[in-house]
Amino acid sequence: MWRIDRTADYGAFQGAARGRVDLARIERHWEDILRIIGSIHTGAVRAYDVIRMLSRDGRPTPLGDAIAHYGRIAKTLHILRLADEPGYRRQIKVQANLQEGRHALARKIFHGRAGHLYQRYQDGMEDLLTELPGV
C-alpha cells in the first residue's frame, strides 16, 4: 500500500503503507494523462502503442511514472475497501466464482475433460473414428 503523507499515522496499517505517492508528479502530467485516456477511449490510439510509449529501455518515462503513481492511489483504495466492506468482498468473490466456472467449462469443452475417459473402453472403439465423415 502507498501513502501520500509520510508523517501521517495510519494506525494498524502503518507498517503496510510504506510506499509513497508523489502527487506533484501526477499534477505535472495531469493534462497528458487525460489526453491519453481520451485518445484510448475514442480509439485514436491503441492501448498497446501507449504502453510502448510510456517506457524506454525497460524504464518508465516521466509520464509513465506519473500514471503509475496515480494507479497506486486506486490500488490502495481497493485494498482498504476490501479489508473494510464485507459486501465488497462478497461482490469480488461472486466475480471470482463466475470466472472459475467459466474456466471449468472451458477445460471440460476444450481440453477433453483433462484426459480422463468417462466411458469404458470396448474392443473396436478405435474403428468408430474411421466411420466419421471427414476422417
Automatic annotation (TrEMBL):
One of its GO terms (molecular function) is transposase activity. InterPro entries: Tn3_Tnp_DDE_dom. Residues 1-129 form the Tn3 transposase DDE domain. One of its GO terms (biological process) is DNA transposition. This is Tn3 transposase DDE domain-containing protein. It comes from Streptomyces sulfonofaciens.
